[in-house]
Amino acid sequence: MKERNLHTILDGFQKMELQDLGNILGNDLSPRLRKSQLVDQLHTYLRAEPRRWMSHLMERDVRLLRELVHAGPEKVQYQDFADYPSLLEVTGLVEYDDSDEHYHKVWISRELYEIVAPEVEKVIGSGEKSGQFEVERIGLGYLNLYGILPTDHFVNLMMDWYEQVHGADFHRLSNMLRQSPLVKMYRYNDSWGDYVCSPCVDNVDEIFSLREQLNQRGLKPFTSADAREAGAGAPYFTVGMKTPEGMRLEQMYRRLGYEGYELVKAAHDTWMEAQYTAGQNDALFQPLVDSPLYPELDDNSWLTCCQIVSDYADSVPKWFLCGRNARDTGLCKADWEAWKTLPESHNEEEKEDYPHWSMPEPTISDGYAKELSAQEFPLGFAIPHVAPEDPCPCGSGLRYCRCHGKFLS
User: Fold this and answer.
1) Mean per-residue pLDDT pooled into runs of 10, the chain (409 residues)
2) Is the dihedral of CA 375, 379, 382, 384 positive or negative?
3) Which sign, positive or negative, has the C-alpha torsion 258, 260, 265, 268?
């Protein structure tokens, strides 16, 4: 594998991008410097002060570094495709390869390994001891429950939680939030106002528009315990797993052969797709089709599984309902009428990779093929003429933004 050095990686950024990266990593760079000076200064900082800049990373990034350090320099680790990439991967500080659509391959260069290996355990210990990671998890939890929060409301929620747990040391919390990579990377100020959003949100305009369309005002209150559950386990968050519906969902997935990481991922994917359930959303039931024991299901057990998934989807907080659920509001309930029987491919000797779906053709501009196989349509390949909510041209039955368009920036 061809390895790029840190200086070359930094040199590939624009001047403003270097300033933004420096700000996130705790090294404010003067805009009056030339680009070459910014590259040199940031490169020196990364090499000389690893403990400091790693302390400005989100917990997920630091733990990824530890995992890669434990594996060793240039040792590829195979991971799944998360709903959002880590800062280390976005910047290229950690190497990755997505050429295989089934695996996300990640590794650490020898240069970065030598920089971070002596300090990464200390940074994780400090993040736990100082409460930095706890603040981040609670913040992520509230954002995952609501999807989008006005910045002032987000700060008020954090202060209320902090006062209950740690006392009224708001100056300390303010400093932690000001330096938090979560706030730095996911706070926006645009035509919708000043707000912070969950890293899992991939379409802010859609959520705001649906809130207006559905006349959703005000936010449903949640406890800090709700936030703690919803903010743990980045990037594979789960919500509502301690409710009766969530416990039934987990028990069902266990019976279908899911365990360990695969169980966590199936529950996470179900929660994510529940956010987009407005009428029929075939992707909501995809973990059932992908389950190890799917071939053994009969029509009755299939119907029971679909009901469990639908009940869970209707019980969890939805972003465009301001944290309310479909059951309480009567809005955007999961529609599983088309799933009352097993997909036609279930009983065929040679099953296709995906079940037969009843979805319209995607909208594709002239000059683009109407039929594309998965082999002809590599994961992450951009076809901008396909609308995000249209079915993916590969034929999977998933929406384009949740399938081959899922990992596009």
Assistant:
1) 83 95 95 96 97 97 97 93 91 91 91 97 97 97 98 96 90 92 95 96 93 92 96 95 97 96 95 80 89 90 92 95 94 71 50 42 46 42 57 64 54
2) positive
3) positive
Tokens of 165: 């747990």
CA-wise closest residue to 319 among 403, 237, 249: 237
- Both tokens of residue 25? 């990593």
Residue found by looking up tokens 């280390």 in the block: 88
pTM recorded for the entire structure? 0.81
Give the distance from CA 265 to its chain's centroid. Answer: 11
131-230 maps to which CATH number? 1.10.10.10
How many CA atoms, within 13 angstroms, populate the side-chain half-sphere of residue 236?
A: 15
Report residue 152 as tokens.
Answer: 């002032």
pLDDT, position 369: 42
| CA 285, 287, 63, 91 torsion-angle sign | negative
The residue behind tokens 């930094």 is 10
For 13-45, give the DSSP string: S-HHHHHHHHHHTT----TTS-HHHHHHHHHHH
How far apart CA 46 and CA 332 sit, in angstroms, is 48
Q: Torsions phi, psi of 330, nearest 5?
A: 75, 10
In this predicted structure, what is the pLDDT of residue 81?
87
Q: What is the pLDDT of residue 4?
A: 80
Q: Which helix (H) or strand (E) holds 67?
A: helix 59-71
With tokens 């990266």, the residue in question is 21
For the chain, the structural domain boundaries read 6-123, 131-230, 244-347, 359-409
Which burial class, exposed, middle or buried, applies to 343 when counting CB atoms under 10 A from its CB (0-12, 13-18, 19+)? buried
Query: Which candidate, 230, 189, 297, places its Cα nearest to that of 287?
Result: 297
Output the six-digit token pair for 80: 């799944």
Amino acid at 201: V
Least Cα distance to 299 among 344, 352, 234 occurs for 344
pLDDT at position 340 is: 59
Strand partners, 282: none
Contact 171, 231 (CB under 8 A): no
